[in-house]
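User: Structure tokens for this complex, please. No commentary.
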Amino acid sequence: MPSHSQSPSPTGSGQRRPASQQGMRRQNLAVVLGAVAAHAPLSRADVAARTGLTRAAVSTLVVTLHEAGLVSELGPAPSGRVGRPGNALVLSSEGPAGLGLEVGVEHLAACVVDLSGEVRVQRRVASANRGRPADEVLADLGGLAAELLAEAEALKLRPVGAVLAVPGLVDAAAGTVVHAANLGWRELRLPPELLGLPLSVENEANLGALAELWRTAGEAEGPAPVDFVHVSAEAGIGAALVVGGRLFRGARGFAGELGHVPVHPDGPLCPCGAHGCLEQYAGERAVLASAGLPEAAGDWVALLAKRAAEGSAPVRRALEQAGAALGTALAGAVNLVDPEAVVLGGAYAELGEWLLPAMRAELAARVTVRPWEPGALSASGLGRAGALLGAALVTVRRIIEDPSGAYGVG
Amino acid sequence: MPSHSQSPSPTGSGQRRPASQQGMRRQNLAVVLGAVAAHAPLSRADVAARTGLTRAAVSTLVVTLHEAGLVSELGPAPSGRVGRPGNALVLSSEGPAGLGLEVGVEHLAACVVDLSGEVRVQRRVASANRGRPADEVLADLGGLAAELLAEAEALKLRPVGAVLAVPGLVDAAAGTVVHAANLGWRELRLPPELLGLPLSVENEANLGALAELWRTAGEAEGPAPVDFVHVSAEAGIGAALVVGGRLFRGARGFAGELGHVPVHPDGPLCPCGAHGCLEQYAGERAVLASAGLPEAAGDWVALLAKRAAEGSAPVRRALEQAGAALGTALAGAVNLVDPEAVVLGGAYAELGEWLLPAMRAELAARVTVRPWEPGALSASGLGRAGALLGAALVTVRRIIEDPSGAYGVG
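Assistant:
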């Protein structure tokens, strides 16, 4: 089972490793690349000023990053300083990149992002995956990925890792889908590679949250929060917790099961075996039934949004009830983990207009011990594109955070 | 407001600091002291083997730690190795120490622990603090602390920091009690020093959880979990989340408000303004009312335990109902944060015999998506001693984790 934690001894920190010269170089490569990623374009002198490293050290480190194809030079940068302006360093728009993959109940998707997080190639195809043999699904996904890699190559991009988004419980460390009820996958071990790229698997709600965390300033209205609860729904209701800019996985990697938080403990029986889980009030089936609509095989979120926009009273009432249940469950979550924000993401972001008011009312009524701003709850601008984008960005972030690490490109 | 997180830039880690020689020495002092803390007695050669540092480096670092009074030598250690056995290093039982302080609704308490976490001096006095002016309470506490410091001096112990446990919402970074309803304290800024020692303030539930985390192997039946939810009750119901061996504070430092997680959203009105909060089912007043007992000014937990042990049916039924409500709220918490364990601590640990069965039943029924072992819920062996012990241990842990840091003793 995955775990972010090691067992420290009861009275000491004996597991900590001593610092070394190699460790210093590795850390300083990350410091320089991180500065370029955050503030490009930057001259070498700017990098030195921002990081506290000497110019000589920066120059040496930049040679390594340049040879690895991670940074490139724009030409002389404007400089307010006296003396020769340095060439401006930016993240390379060619070379190492990330491949994102997604298996949904009704679709397959893939995209390639470059080091700066820009989506350069993207494809989504309809595919009825519910109950289909996993090897067939993965073969189709491999075909889609091969097309994208060819397109990426034409752009001189070279994905060095692939991450697959799955709607279900995932053991990321073991590379296993523990249970994806809507696909019919259980204890499915994924191959360690796809088309020669190391392949990881991750829960789609987690990846949507990471995309929200990493969305570039240009896409966001303000600085992205680093401590938030991200709620999304596709086939089920999932949440992801981001803490201090990192995904919070829990002891076994299963954190974020908001869909099975009790809302009314004596409420209807949930397929999970418990009574009154959030999914019984805000899940796909519950909302469709409450709205008087038949269970839809297609895009039920789009259907609900359309009917609500047309003014359907039963649909609006069903969404309001779902919003209230979401708000009640989230109030408990906010009382417990004290995030700075709550983000409604995934497909449900498209229903924000009808869900958010009731969610806000419940949060305002139930998070009372310390202040809670209504604006701290918002709908994601990424919506259902978030999970795939997050999958592609994982590889890019790993490179930037430790260029000598995972993929050894530095 | 306190925050463990800094704002990383959207696409990089530019804030990371470069590694330096000074940083290496500081880190390696912590590595050596941590090894001694975890595995003492250890020879210098043992430390080198455990840490990967050279023997020469270890010897130099040990000189510094010895001069700071942090380690001492026992004399020759038994050694299976060929050659001269080295002197065994242990944490010093004299010198730097931690002072813990506690203000309860009905008592004041203080204790001093040495570097190995052993309580060397301890005192608890009755004191009716509800609604009493804070400066009077703190003056009495200062008097108690002065007595303990004199006793500690006789043992050649020198506390270098004091931490105060308070039943209420605390802004630890600002040194402020935001709201302690049962004491009548609101926005109370504590002095930065007490008797010349730097003074910190912390929520008692958090400190109880830290004591549980840091309890020494001798006191525990097995290795202490590093990812757990710690529920305690004194005047109100509080929880603390420990993640990866660290206290999880939330974005603003207010995580763990389990007492106001909704259990029955349409339930009775809580003084907080919301309906159906956990405190309305498992808080002091709710349990006493449900048991048909008058609100007690004294030790109501001891009273309930006594009556339950005597076989009182209304008391047992009231505790069973409280346990069910605790279990429902905790099931939501477990689904959300996926801890490896849940610990019932504080005064409620003494009611474990009557609370735990219903708590276990609710957890078993509601944490169903992935396995939950009934044994993962237990009552703390520290009980209501936990908060004070945790307060004293904070200082000791800070020294061991970074001897050159906070108190500069290394």
